[in-house]
Amino acid sequence: MSATKPRLTTSAMIASIAGEGQKTKPAPFGHALAALAAQRPDIVGMTADLSKYTDLHIFAQAHPDRFYQMGMAEQLLMGAAAGLAREGFTPFATTYAVFASRRAYDFICLGIAEEALNVKIVCALPGLTTGYGPSHQATEDLAIFRGMPNLTIVDPCDALDIEQAVPAIAAHQGPVYMRLLRGAVPLVLDEYDYKFELGKAALLRDGADVLIVSTGLMTMRALETADLLRRDRIEAAVLHVPTIKPLDEATIRAQAARAGRPVVVAENHSVVGGLGEAVAATLLRNGIAPRFRQVALPDQFLDAGALPTLHDRYGLSAPAMAATLKGWL
Amino acid sequence: MATDRPNAPTLAERARNIRRNALRMGEVQGQGYIAQALGIADVLAVAYFHALAYRPEEPDWEGRDRFLLSVGHYAIAMYAALIEAGVIPRDELETYGIDDSRLPMSGMAAYTPGMEISGGSLGQGLGIAVGMSLGLKRKRSGAFVYNMMSDGELGEGATWEAAMSAAHWKLDNLICLVDFNNQQADGPSTSMLCAEPLAPKWEAFGWHAQRVNGNDIAAVRAAFDTARGLAEPRPRVIIFDTRMARGIPFLEARERNHFLRVEPQEWQQALAILDREEATQ
């Protein structure tokens, strides 16, 4: 670090991931759920002391009689959500991704997933979206949850993705885990011919030189990276995969089979057990063997610090990702 | 309830039949959680033939009281009661624990009519019961939720999260049943992670607590009546002190009877004891 460059501060627990001047929408999850609940009396909202930090407070304000504050007790949160689902309600249960995946796993697995109950688990701070260090950075939540039968896993990219995913996961019969961006959430996908469809991958941008398969906020970064690469006359395709499980293997295979394009999987998650390994497995199982790379977090406990610093350090920022790809291509 | 009809079997007869059903299932496997089943039979007899509202021919009837078997390995006891209650056909008894049976060794909702949840990952039942009690209140249902748990589950932190929550939400439709037989896989519960003093502990968590001899049918019935009839806006717990293998003296005397091995001829010897008991009454 040069002496003249100011050191960034970690800031709040849950800083916005929006870049400077980026278009954003406030609390897309909370507003979408509140609107949907007006049509769906079966929907209830539950949280373990994190309504404000998961945007569920918007729902709670709109539907106070359908909001359950369960206190700081994530195992109870999941058990009680299972009980409400058993009685015919559709609970949206929110907490941080670390607590759902690490602390409440068994309660989700046996209490909810084993019986395919209609609980929607929506979790903030996925991957590296806080500078608070490993206690709050859910860098392995996808790895943890991918092994759970019956569970649908969604990692939306931006405010539009979240708004459209909420009614889609509510309409789906069965348990869902959704990673959440909250607060002032970037709006990116409105500039593309895109609509969220549960279980479907979508090609946002075509390109002949490299295929980037991405999910969550890394789709946003992949699109920025594609712009940066174009300056060097490298044309990148971006395939957005908002549903991690079940994986849209047919679309991924069809895109990856196009000869001559290396495949790069980009995700806000550990290199272990996330979208990257899921894509690699489906390609290998089907005899498709392009050059393959991952842009993902290292298999280690990450540093604390300011998010922009950390995204640069671990290669998730668009400039870092563009540099990495240029090195590979 | 069956006991309300003239000439209906008494609760003691129901309990004996539940023990018989459990022993016959145990004989199919040659081993199992038979000591727990014999110990809890009196409580289950009172539950299914005195306290619970249910329709044997319609296990999912919306107005039913929900009976959650948090302690999944008590499935043998639960099946024995559900067979006696007419929810499960009697001839399925011989399929207990056999491939493709509806009666697996650990209770699961998807397998068995009358089984509300998949228990077995101990400490989960009470949290689910909280959610179901909240749900029933949302629906303005008058049904009760019963959560049947073991003393071992008192060691699970999740039990106490749920206990706090039930009191917080004033869940007067929730009745927790704790089978205190003081026997876990590695030895006496109180020697490993002692939950005593247990009734004051539940009271401190905001519950109405009773502790009774779970093998005294009159006391069990009175405790159920008190728990159901209480006007106070708080959840209720009944702690049942029970004796492992109750009713079969040579099994009661066996140490370390958490997962009992029974010799082939002993099953019939045990059933004969119940037959003699019936004949002398």
Structure write-up:
By secondary structure, chain A is of the alpha/beta class. Chain A folds into 2 domains: 163 residues, Rossmann fold, CATH 3.40.50; 130 residues, Rossmann fold. Chain A is built from 12 helices and 14 strands. In chain A, the strands form 3 sheets. Chain A has a 7-stranded mixed beta sheet, sandwiched between helices. Chain A has a 5-stranded mixed beta sheet with strand order 9-11-10-13-14, with helices on both faces. In chain A, helix 8 links the parallel strand 10 and strand 11. The radius of gyration of chain A is 19 Å and the shape is globular. The two termini of chain A are 27 Å apart. The relative contact order of chain A is 0.13. Chain B is α/β, with parallel strands linked by helices. Chain B has one domain: Rossmann fold (3-Layer(aba) Sandwich), CATH 3.40.50.970. Chain B is built from 10 helices and 7 strands. In chain B, helix 1 runs antiparallel to helix 2, helix 2 packs parallel to helix 3 and helix 4 packs parallel to helix 5. Chain B is globular. The two termini of chain B are 23 Å apart. The model of chain B has no long low-confidence stretch (mean pLDDT 95). The chains are: A alpha/beta (329), B alpha/beta (281). At the A-B interface, helix 3 and helix 5 of A face helix 4 and helix 5 of B. Chain B: Pfam families: Transketolase_N. Chain B: Keywords: Membrane, Thiamine pyrophosphate, Transmembrane, Transmembrane helix. Chain B: Its cofactor is thiamine diphosphate. Chain B: This is Transketolase. Chain B: Belongs to the transketolase family. Chain A: It comes from Rhodopila globiformis (Rhodopseudomonas globiformis).
Record the SSE blueprint.
The complex is a heterodimer of chains A (329) and B (281).
Chain A: E1 24-26, H1 28-39, E2 43-47, H2 56-62, E3 67-69, H3 74-86, E4 90-96, H4 97-103, H5 105-109, E5 120-124, H6 141-146, E6 152-154, H7 159-171, E7 176-180, E8 184-186, E9 202-205, E10 210-214, H8 217-230, E11 236-240, E12 243-245, H9 249-256, E13 263-270, H10 275-285, E14 292-297, H11 307-313, H12 318-328
Parallel strand pairs in A: 2-3, 2-4, 4-5, 5-7, 6-7, 10-11, 10-13, 13-14
Antiparallel strand pairs in A: 1-8, 6-12, 9-11
Helix pairs in contact in A: 1-2, 1-7, 8-12
Chain B: H1 11-29, E1 31-32, H2 34-51, E2 66-69, H3 75-84, H4 125-138, E3 145-150, H5 157-168, E4 174-180, H6 189-192, H7 198-204, E5 208-213, H8 217-229, E6 236-241, H9 249-252, E7 260-261, H10 264-279
Parallel strand pairs in B: 2-3, 3-4, 4-6, 5-6
Antiparallel strand pairs in B: 1-7
Helix pairs in contact in B: 1-2, 1-3, 1-10, 2-3, 2-8, 4-5
InterPro entries (chain A): PDH/Transketolase, THDP-binding, Transketo_C/PFOR_II, Transketolase-like_Pyr-bd, Transketolase_C
Cofactor (chain A): thiamine diphosphate
Protein name (chain A): Transketolase
